[in-house]
Design a protein that fits this description.
Strand content: 35-45%
Number of helices: 5
Number of strands: 7
Length: 172
């Protein structure tokens, strides 16, 4: 299994991560905020990186390194410390599509969340046409809990999102 290193999503990775936002697949499947590079770089400084500080941040974000290259960014957001739930999001570098990295990285992050926090449920929203991401979550045991009709606006068009959930006691 490839070795992955989860690093704080610091501004030193901003150029790489920002470039992925121009990829046609990312643009098709994600409701990306329209940010210029300066705003994106500044945004990276506002995320948590240490899950022991779950109550201090509403979003945590990591750049994931493999063989000295950033290959993915993974985040948790919409953290509810009362209900003990969170959402996970991830983007694989376009140069690393179809190499199995997404599934391995999401699996590692889900394990990290369940092992290091009291979070009891991890959810994800996936564009109805994003079959690769759906496959990742299906393989990891996430359950399809429903379709949120016209939930996001992507490129100013309403799109359906599949709501996935995984409970801590379901994790194999």
């Amino acid at each position: 299994m490839p070795k992955f290193e989860f690093l704080p999503s610091l501004p030193e990775y901003a150029e790489t991560l920002f470039s992925w936002r121009k990829d046609p697949t990312a643009l098709k499947h994600n409701p990306l905020d329209r940010l210029d590079f300066k705003a994106y770089n500044e945004l990276l400084t506002k995320f948590g990186h240490d899950l022991s500080q779950l109550d201090k941040y509403n979003k945590f974000c990591w750049a994931v390194k493999h063989q000295n290259e950033i290959v993915c960014v993974v985040s948790i957001h919409n953290i509810d410390t009362r209900m003990l739930t969170t959402h996970i999001g991830y983007t694989v570098a376009p140069t690393h599509y179809n190499r199995g990295f997404g599934g391995k990285i999401v699996s590692l992050m889900v394990d990290k969340i369940f092992n290091e926090t009291k979070i009891r449920k991890v959810s994800a929203l996936v564009h109805i046409e994003n079959l690769a991401s759906q496959k990742i979550l299906d393989k990891l045991g996430f359950k399809r809990e429903g379709v949120l009709r016209q939930h996001f606006l992507i490129n100013d068009q309403p799109v359906d999102e599949i709501y996935f959930g995984l409970l801590k006691n379901e994790r194999l």
